[in-house]
Specification:
The protein has 548 residues and is of the alpha/beta class. The protein is built from 15 helices and 20 strands.
Length: 548
């Protein structure tokens, strides 16, 4: 198993062990806080129908005609038959406000200033328009946003730290981001954030707040995240108590969600004590991961058992898992089917397009794939996915360069995989969310597809599916995949669909017909053995399921 430097075997074991014994050590010196009491109305709000939640980064085209801008933002939401039940508006700029504030100075951005002069409070209007459509509405707060230029774009590496960071250097972690990230080990940061979010909760009619730890990690001093985890827990408790106070005044509950890493090891590494959050009743919805298709839903379910906590895996199609950005609808169906099979309570999409290509072009916005539009009508329930073609895939390594944390890294993914010499063997686990063994009459075919770097003779690779040998029915040595860059390093994901086919690329596609009776609605084992003398590099493993 490949691990990033931050998640070496020693570090992984240390943090995992700390996850088991750390709370016991803490209890020896500090009294454990009592769980926060939550009423019946709160639990009813947690249990609201929530199939697909959409997290929208709503920054672009500020200052455009506001009515048309609203139509653009709600285009997919307003389509008949959509399964979108919840909208999470991601317009955080802590340090400067995008809304009327007595705490923060206004963000000076040309388009936003134009709306201000027109008397438009865009946050208030977004909340009102969401409510008018009878959708749940959340505010998503990035725990560490990036500095912004006057045009609302990221300041990047040449930008200066915000004046608040300059005035409070103890609030800042000096890390991979030049301007520094907010340090939740500082009581000043925690108090300031709670004040900012209290103002938002008081002034706007939100159903809930999400604390997005994905943007950006670390939020605790690197190397000490698990040691200092109590500070994050304290922040979550302060948030819960603040929202409860505001909710009691308005006589309607306000939920609290958090976006955390996709597995328990990542949470321990980054300093998130989910077991303690659950014990204290500090969170209602856990958004799992960002760019990972392998979310440990079962592990989080065991950890939160007995608490009314919803599990919500997230699929980011901008910082996508490598080689699967802007994929076909069959891919989204496969990912969603796996998540529902594992017990997800809802799904969240992030960085997906929010309008059809024609509307996007009208707004001078790069169109997203039509698979986004279709997915919003299909992936929100197991029933709507039944008997639809799917592609189930094994995740590939790579990662957006958020370097000092486990979040958003998929460095422990098994692919690409090398068989370096004759006799080399490897086994890859492939999760399948459909009961194919009992659906043979509805199936046209089930194909196992392997993409291998270079020109590979089919005779040099022995393949078994769940222990049964299988032979290739397709051997294509001229296969192309514009999102695979071997032998060059895989670039960081992100950006628009702008890849070009490398005419010199050498890939081999091997397809194997798999009897449905061999397929398990869980983990399936694909075993490979190299009998040739050259190195075999396995790039992709997929199961294509075609229904009749």
């Amino acid at each position: 198993m490949h691990t990033p430097p931050e998640l070496s075997r020693r570090t992984f074991l240390a943090t995992a062990g700390a996850g088991l014994v750390g709370p016991c050590l803490a209890r020896a010196t500090e009294p454990r806080p009592h769980p926060v009491a939550l009423g019946q109305k709160h639990h009813e709000a947690v249990n609201r129908k929530r199939r697909i939640a959409v997290q929208y980064d709503a920054w672009s085209h500020l200052g455009h005609d506001f009515a048309e801008w609203l139509d653009y933002r709600f285009d997919y939401i307003d389509e008949p038959g959509t399964q979108i039940d919840s909208i999470w508006w991601d317009i955080t700029a802590m340090g400067n406000s995008t809304y009327p504030s007595k705490i923060l100075k206004p963000l000076r951005q040309v388009g936003l200033d134009r709306w201000r002069k027109q008397g438009i409070d865009w946050v208030g209007r977004l909340v009102a328009e969401t409510r008018k459509r009878k959708r749940e509405v959340f505010w998503s707060h990035r725990i560490s946003e990036v500095e912004l230029n006057d045009d609302g774009t990221g300041a990047g590496w040449n930008g200066k730290p915000h004046p608040i960071k300059q005035a409070h250097p103890d609030w800042v972690i000096k890390t991979w981001w030049k301007q520094g990230l907010w340090n939740l080990a500082s009581a000043g940061v925690r108090d300031f954030k709670v004040r900012v979010l209290r103002e938002l909760a008081t002034n706007y009619d939100f159903d809930g707040f999400q604390i997005d730890f994905a943007r950006h990690i670390p939020c605790l001093p690197p190397g000490r995240q698990w040691e200092l985890r109590a500070h994050v827990t304290r922040f979550m408790r302060d948030m819960r108590l603040m929202l409860k106070q505001v909710a009691e005044k308005r006589k309607r509950p306000i939920l609290l969600a958090a976006r955390i890493p996709c597995d328990l090891a990542g949470c321990r590494h980054d300093g998130f004590d989910i077991a303690e959050w659950a014990r204290q009743n500090l969170v209602d919805i856990l958004t799992l991961g960002s760019r990972s298709i392998d979310c440990d839903i079962e592990g989080f379910r065991r950890l939160t058992r007995g608490r009314n906590i919803k599990l919500q895996p997230c699929l980011d199609d901008h910082h996508a898992t490598d080689a699967y950005q802007y994929p076909p609808i069959e891919y989204f169906r496969g990912v969603a089917a796996n998540w529902w099979r594992q017990g997800a309570d809802s799904l969240l999409t992030f960085n997906w397009s929010n309008a059809d290509p024609q509307f996007c072009r009208k707004m001078d916005k790069t169109p997203g794939p039509l698979s986004h539009q279709q997915a919003y009508h299909e992936i929100g329930s197991p029933g709507s996915l039944r008997d639809k073609d799917k592609i189930f895939v094994v995740q590939r390594r790579g990662g957006y360069p958020w370097a000092e944390g486990a979040f958003n890294r998929n460095d422990r993914a098994v692919l690409p995989l090398q068989l370096s010499k004759a006799g080399s063997t490897a086994t890859v686990s492939l999760r399948v969310g459909d009961h194919l063994a009992t659906s043979a009459d509805q199936l046209e075919q089930v194909l196992l597809r392997l993409i291998v770097f270079g020109t590979v003779d089919r005779k040099t690779l022995d393949v078994k599916f769940n222990g049964v040998p299988t032979r290739a029915v397709t051997h294509d040595v001229s296969w192309k995949d514009r999102q695979i860059f071997s032998p060059r390093p895989q670039p960081s994901s992100g950006g628009a669909d702008g890849w070009k086919i490398d005419p010199n690329q050498k890939l081999t596609r091997l397809d194997f017909r798999i009897p449905p009776r061999l397929c398990k609605a869980a983990g399936n084992q694909v075993s490979l053995r190299s009998s040739g003398k050259t190195t075999i590099k396995l790039e992709k493993v997929e199961l294509h399921v075609d229904y009749a």
